[in-house]
Amino acid sequence: MPQPNSSSTDGYDIAFRVLGIAIAIAVPLANLAWLGGTITAKVTDADPGAPYQPVAALLHPEQLWPHLGETSLLIGTRIVPGTLLLALAVAAAVLYKRHKDGGSGRKKRIEGMAKHKDIEPLMSKAITAKARSLRPSLKNAKHIDAADSGILLGNLQGTKHEVRMGFEDVAVAIMAPRSGKTTSLAIPSILAAPGPVILTSNKAAGDAYTATLDARAAIGRTWSMDPQQIAHAERAMWWNPLADAKTLDGAGRLASHFLAASVDASQQGDFWSKAGSNILSQLFLAAALAERPITDVMAWLAFPADRTPLDILRDHNFAAVAAQLKGTVEGPPETRDGIYETARQYAAALLNTEIAAWVTPQKNLPEFTPSTFVTSTDTLYLLSKDGGGGASALIAACADSVMRAATAQAERAGGRLDPPMLAILDEAANVCKISDLPDLYSHLGSRGIIPITILQSYRQGQKCWGDAGMDALWSASTIKVIGSGIDDTDFADKLSRLIGDHDVETTSTSTSESGKSTSLSMRQERILAADAIRALPKGTALAFATGMRAAMLDLRPWYLEPGADELSAASDRASKGITARAIAKAAPKQSDFGPAA
């Protein structure tokens, strides 16, 4: 059977395309010429109305309007119609480009990423309906504010559609420094939170602390626990870490925070670490049962022969625990001394009287009680330096105590907190190392406790919780936000594979003796390659939600939102206050130079 001539086929295709373009231009131009001539004739009263003949109007306008002058015909049937057609063509091109780029034309939507319908459960209508079912207080409300429906993550890229996580989601955010984790995630979430809020951080001035302090004070009390004087604030509270240590499990949890703050996950299983943690838990239990301050534990660690903790444990029917403690005390001296020295190092921060004052009873200062906090609209700021050791252990213990109190309150309230509690665990791997946080993630969201753990990298989480722990945290998070600055090639490739592939149409042209032929084929290609993930521009983020396609988001920094000027001014005032207090503390006192002359 003879093959069709490829050259002839290509010629026909070109001819049809040219004909189509000519018709697309001629038809509207002819109609505009007739309309322009008719309007010109009526305006000048030079000719009566002409019949509808657009072709004649385009080719021979003088036949339809013989009394119009050449200038009038030129303007009415040539210049004006041509200008209008050009303007319409430009407008159509702009609209097409905006539609193709994803709606607003600001940023081109990446082919294969989630569209509006792919993440509909995170959009306004669905998230508001979900909020009604989760929060009894909103069930009969006629109108629900956006802040009461969920936590804003950003806008679907290139659109005005807001993407929110609901009040049953738990999230992890991996964002490099200066990629928007504070300005676009932590601060907006805190400002919009309808219930109590916890923030952990290693910074104060110019950060989430100063940006939200005044705004949160307007809706509830603000508590600041600052044992290492990050904000140089006057101590206005104290908290008793032994309040939850009156059981062996509670004392063990408190000791685990001191262990996690002192050594990495890979070292927590060796003999000395375990033994030191066990001694701490036994002494914490004794101090809690006798309602003694936590600083008494340091005195007992200094003198292992002191029988006071043994007597307390026995008097409160903890004979088995007392026997374990007695066995350690009376064991080989070199082993006992090694265990006790390990425990001393873990709790060494309690020797600092400035730090210890935050966790021991203080006259004329209110006590922070987690059980009361979780039913309020208060805010708790937990501040500690990176590598704070025992001081960061107290931060982690306080955050853990609040989340456990919230869980207990949710159970008493029928299963969920209403309004929900937000826990922004910024710099969690540095200042808030809760060892079993990955396990807690599996049920916190169902209790109306919404944690957002913010890390600088995936490896940072692995160092804190180990490979298995970080994998568990990642898997348990129903929302995952990935910002710019991902330099881990393995993690970037993992994200690329999670986003998946899409079909790409490929056109190939070949030339032979019989002529030129063109063929189309489909091939699979990564939607977002690892190098593209590494190069994510600032102001954008990837969002992974359980059971949905990955979405690209435009972040919404707080300083571009309504009311930013007022918040910025308040933040500046708070930052200047920190600076002034720091200078005042550093200034030499008269006593440093002896009595005045």
Q: Overview of this structure, please?
A:
Among the domains are: 14-101; 241-360. It has 23 helices and 13 strands. The chain has helices spanning 6-44, 54-59, 61-64, 70-101, 124-134, 146-149, 181-192, 208-217, 248-262, 271-289, 296-302, 308-315, 319-329, 333-346, 353-356, 370-373, 390-412, 428-431, 437-444, 458-476, 489-499, 530-534, 564-586, and strands spanning 151-156, 162-165, 171-174, 197-201, 222-225, 379-383, 421-426, 449-455, 479-482, 501-512, 515-526, 540-545, 551-554. Helix 19 (437-444) packs parallel to helix 20 (458-476). The longest helix has 39 residues, at 6-44. Residues 102-106 have low confidence and may be disordered.
Topology, pairings included?
Layout: H1 6-44, H2 54-59, H3 61-64, H4 70-101, H5 124-134, H6 146-149, E1 151-156, E2 162-165, E3 171-174, H7 181-192, E4 197-201, H8 208-217, E5 222-225, H9 248-262, H10 271-289, H11 296-302, H12 308-315, H13 319-329, H14 333-346, H15 353-356, H16 370-373, E6 379-383, H17 390-412, E7 421-426, H18 428-431, H19 437-444, E8 449-455, H20 458-476, E9 479-482, H21 489-499, E10 501-512, E11 515-526, H22 530-534, E12 540-545, E13 551-554, H23 564-586
Parallel strand pairs: 3-8, 3-9, 4-6, 4-7, 5-6, 7-8
Antiparallel strand pairs: 1-2, 1-13, 9-12, 10-11, 12-13
Helix pairs in contact: 1-4, 7-8, 8-23, 9-10, 9-17, 10-11, 10-12, 10-14, 12-13, 19-20
Transmembrane segments: 14-35, 73-96
Organism: Streptomyces anulatus
Domain TraD/TraG TraM recognition site: 420-538
